[in-house]
């Protein structure tokens, strides 16, 4: 056999052909440049690095679509094009040679390590998968399981990681759903995505899957896609650069940006002011570019007139990047280090609560559920797992609730996981009911809505990287509050707890897994509007009631003591009640009005009364007689007695002060400057007067001593009371702070509980709606089937039957719920019970022919009734009329 016919020879031939095509194209360019010296074509001085890399995927019918696309592309766009098609691994591909006829650009079959250059077309080789890193294409051996091979998704996802906003993805004709995840990844990083329309695609399954996932910006024919790529090539810098002078980031346009924020806030109730402005501005610029609007004011007007564009901008800003088991190594660390910490303090019947904010279409929540079940193994039956998955978009939450994903998720999941936790359907893979029941999906904005509480784990990955410092400083303490002691916080690879490192212990630094520390967090929750409550009206002190009660007690005491002029004072020595005529002993002093008894008593009584009141405070009655009181310019003797009033409710203390007139008569005060002549005969009188004056002075000195002593004791008592009061105040202050914290915590828990109840209610409502629809479908299906069908439970009770069964089995609607053996059917069959039990035990379908009382023959098939979880829960009986089948006219 000639060497050129061998596979190696054909491969060498293709390489030589590609090299020849490359030289031929370059010679044409040089010839064109020599003939036109003023030409400014980019190929005159080629830049090997393309301004953008376009990944194009196709399957069945892709050759024609490739050719239409390439025919419409200019040869000097400055872009690099990489074509990925489903190729038979054991057959040589002629794709590069066929496509070279449709374009003047060089078409090269990829070899490992080739760098993508501008104005070149690269075609994937057979029997290889392809990825790109730093603009260099890499080949790898294909997966042995062809059903799991998704070459388009694999390449487009690597293209998104490598080129970011410069990536462009195109999905053309093809079957299945390969390419959907790749377009989602490109759109998430800010790139542009295309899909072929149904009218021009021979097989529309691939484009339709990407469109249904919301991952497509343009839906066009291949030739129109080429036209848009040409336009993008001229303006790709507008949306693909970090620093763009034409982007809406100047100070003069801040007002217009605030208007856009206001429109988004009215539409979604989400305030994007606190999100990272660079990301927001790039997304706005991207939407302007897609709508061919170059003025921010014009775009604002467009948003106001087109609600669908406002929704598209909102969805673009959400940046839903997700997938099953993102960073598989991180999930392995969870299994080895985080999950054991969660289960440490759990009992035999444990409840695991997990929160996934920013859950997108649900892959993260379902991945955690699968990972936890795999970790628990045989213990899973005793552990209840509850996962709360939330996002700000109701549309995304609806997709997550359904749990239906394209076939291309197989590249992220093992065969074992696909078989155990998914069901294969015509539309893709459906998450199993076991996993679905663990997850509760609800709309929630983590920036303003109450969090869930008492959680064992929070997975908040790639959410905070889009938020500004204000939101991050608010959310980290919130996540700390929501976790149980030693609860796990799982962040994205580009995220960190920042300035709140003291709140968490590091479980794994590389994959950003943290455990909660039991330290107080600086929480400032403002989840619900705070309305200023009405000021509490001061409670009346019921002074009138107190006065009536005190007056009654005082009257009883005074009646016992002959009711002298008296006053009732409180512990602060303020008069609260006057009894009788007290003007003989009390006299208001000039200045500010005061009811203090020591300020109102007349001269001479102040010192004695103060000392007596100090003694009375100790609980014993005090009586003082012969106290000189100044009244109308003369001195007179007065007596007073102080009685503590007992049996008063509460801790208030009151004293009854009673005044009496003395019996020593009235002595006129000596007039000043009056000279008395001393007679020698009156010496005794003078001596007597001196002795009296000395006795009075001695009495006053003793009273002063007592007064000073009482002041000292009062000061000591006051100091002790102040010290005690200070301690009580400090203790009360601490108690109030503790109560305030408990009230705040209780309020937050109530908010969280309310949020959970709302979430569960929404979930139950959705499930009720689904059950109603399913029940309606089943009723209509059974009503329209003209075959006797009876469904029985394991207890042989009738669940459902078709209307035709009523005549054959002698049934009525009221027989639902009755055992089939209690009903006398029209069939001549004696061992029906034994047949049903045999089918349930053997799990094999039983078929036999039976005759009814009218002589008609039926083929009776009894097969096991299987649930979604592959459990046997009864049997299904089907009767086929043999007479009608073989004797239609009978």
What does this structure look like?
The model is unreliable at 1-46, 240-249, 527-548 and 665-678 (pLDDT under 50). The protein contains 25 helices and 29 strands. A 7-stranded parallel beta sheet has the order 3-4-2-1-7-8-9, sandwiched between helices. It has a 7-stranded mixed beta sheet with strand order 15-11-10-16-17-19-18, with helices on both faces. A 5-stranded antiparallel beta sheet has the order 21-20-24-23-22, with helices on both faces. The two termini are 72 Å apart. It has 890 residues and is an alpha/beta fold. Strand 27 and strand 28 form a beta hairpin.
Treating each run of at least 4 consecutive H or I residues as one helix, how many helices?
Answer: 25
Major β-sheet strand ordering: 3-4-2-1-7-8-9
Indicate the percent of residues in helices.
40-55%
The total strand number stands at 29
Beta-strand residue percentage: 15-25%
Radius of gyration, CA atoms, in whole angstroms: 47 Å
Report how far apart the termini are: 72 Å
Structural class: alpha/beta
Indicate the mean pLDDT. Answer: 80
The parts where pLDDT drops under 50 for at least 5 residues are 1-46, 240-249, 527-548, 665-678
> Can you tell me the overall shape?
elongated
Q: Strand count, sense and closure of the main sheet?
A: 7 strands, parallel
């Amino acid at each position: 056999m000639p060497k050129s016919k061998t596979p190696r020879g054909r491969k060498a031939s293709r390489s030589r052909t590609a090299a020849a095509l490359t030289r031929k194209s370059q010679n044409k360019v040089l010839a064109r440049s020599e003939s036109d010296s003023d030409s400014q074509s980019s190929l005159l001085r080629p830049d090997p690095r393309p301004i953008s890399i376009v990944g194009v995927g196709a399957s069945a019918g892709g050759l024609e679509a490739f050719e239409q696309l390439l025919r419409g592309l200019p040869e000097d766009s400055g872009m690099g094009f990489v074509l990925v098609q489903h190729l038979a691994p054991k057959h040589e591909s002629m794709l590069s040679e066929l496509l070279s006829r449709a374009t003047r650009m060089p078409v090269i079959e990829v070899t490992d390590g080739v760098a993508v250059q501008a104005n070149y077309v690269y075609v994937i080789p057979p029997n290889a998968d392809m990825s790109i890193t730093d603009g260099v294409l890499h080949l790898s051996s294909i997966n042995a399981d062809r059903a799991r091979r998704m070459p388009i998704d694999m390449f487009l996802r690597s293209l998104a990681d490598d080129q970011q906003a410069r990536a462009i993805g195109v999905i053309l004709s093809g079957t299945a759903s390969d390419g959907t995840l790749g377009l989602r990844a490109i759109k998430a990083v800010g790139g542009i995505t295309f899909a072929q329309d149904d009218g021009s695609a021979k097989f529309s399954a691939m484009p339709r899957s990407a469109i249904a996932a919301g991952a497509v910006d343009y839906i066009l024919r291949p030739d129109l896609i080429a036209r848009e790529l040409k336009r993008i090539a001229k303006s790709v810098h507008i949306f693909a650069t970090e620093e763009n002078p034409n982007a809406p980031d100047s100070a003069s346009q801040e007002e217009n940006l605030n208007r856009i924020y206001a429109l988004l806030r009215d539409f979604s109730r989400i305030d994007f002011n606190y999100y990272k402005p660079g990301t927001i501005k790039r997304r706005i610029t991207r939407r302007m570019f897609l709508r061919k609007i170059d003025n921010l004011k014009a775009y604002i007007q467009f948003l106001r007139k087109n609600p669908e564009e406002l929704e598209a901008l909102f969805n673009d800003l959400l940046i839903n990047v997700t997938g099953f088991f993102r960073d598989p190594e991180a999930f392995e660390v969870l299994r080895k280090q985080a999950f054991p910490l969660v289960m440490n303090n759990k009992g035999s019947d444990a409840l695991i609560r997990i929160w996934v904010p920013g859950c997108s279409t649900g892959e993260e929540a379902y991945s955690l559920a699968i990972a936890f079940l795999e970790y628990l193994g045989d213990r899973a039956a005793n552990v209840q797992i509850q996962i709360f998955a939330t996002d700000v978009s109701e549309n995304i939450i609806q997709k997550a609730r359904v749990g239906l994903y394209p076939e291309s998720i197989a590249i992220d999941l093992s065969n074992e996981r696909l078989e155990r936790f998914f069901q294969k359907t015509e539309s893709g893979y459906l998450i199993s009911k076991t996993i679905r029941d663990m997850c509760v999906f609800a709309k929630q904005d983590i920036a303003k809505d109450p969090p869930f509480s008492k959680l064992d784990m929070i997975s908040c990955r790639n959410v905070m990287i889009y938020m500004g410092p204000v939101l991050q400083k608010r959310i980290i303490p919130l996540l700390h509050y929501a976790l149980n002691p030693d609860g796990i916080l799982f962040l994205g690879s580009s995220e960190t707890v920042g300035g709140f490192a003291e709140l968490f212990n590091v479980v794994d630094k590389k994959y950003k897994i943290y455990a909660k520390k039991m330290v107080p967090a600086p929480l400032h929750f403002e989840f619900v509007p705070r309305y200023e409550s009405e000021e509490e009206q001061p409670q009346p002190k019921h002074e009138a009631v107190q006065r009536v009660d005190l007056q009654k007690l005082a009257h009883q005491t005074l009646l016992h003591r002959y009711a002298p002029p008296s006053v009732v004072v409180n512990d602060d020595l303020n008069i609260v009640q006057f009894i009788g005529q007290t003007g003989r002993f009390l006299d208001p002093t000039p200045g500010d009005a005061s009811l203090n008894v020591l300020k109102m008593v007349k001269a001479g009584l102040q010192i004695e009364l103060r000392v007596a009141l100090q003694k009375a405070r100790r609980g014993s009655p005090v009586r003082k007689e012969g106290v000189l009181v100044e009244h109308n310019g003369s001195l007179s003797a007065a007596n007073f007695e102080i009685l503590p009033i007992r049996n008063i409710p509460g801790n208030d203390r009151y004293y009854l002060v009673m005044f009496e007139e003395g019996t020593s008569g009235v002595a006129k005060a000596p007039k000043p400057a009056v000279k008395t002549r001393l007679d020698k005969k009156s010496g005794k009188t003078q001596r007597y007067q001196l002795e009296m004056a000395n006795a009075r002075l001695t009495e006053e000195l003793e009273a002063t001593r007592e007064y000073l002593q009482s002041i000292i004791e009062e000061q000591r008592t006051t100091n002790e009371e102040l010290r005690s009061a200070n301690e009580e105040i400090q203790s009360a202050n601490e108690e109030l702070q503790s109560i305030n914290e408990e009230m705040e915590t209780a309020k937050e828990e109530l908010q969280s509980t309310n949020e959970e109840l709302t979430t569960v209610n929404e979930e139950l409502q959705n499930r009720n709606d689904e059950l109603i629809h399913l029940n309606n479908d089943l009723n209509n299906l059974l009503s329209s089937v003209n075959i006797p069908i009876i469904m029985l439970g394991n207890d042989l009770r009738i669940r459902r039957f078709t209307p035709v069964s009523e005549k054959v089995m002698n049934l009525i609607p009221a027989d639902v719920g009755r055992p089939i053996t209690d009903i006398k059917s029209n069939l001549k069959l004696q061992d029906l019970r034994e047949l049903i039990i045999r089918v349930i035990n053997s799990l094999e379908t039983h078929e036999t022919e039976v005759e009814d009382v009218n002589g008609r023959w039926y083929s009776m098939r009894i097969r096991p009734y299987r649930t979604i979880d592959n459990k046997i829960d009864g049997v299904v009986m089907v009767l086929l009329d043999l007479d009608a089948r073989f004797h239609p006219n009978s």
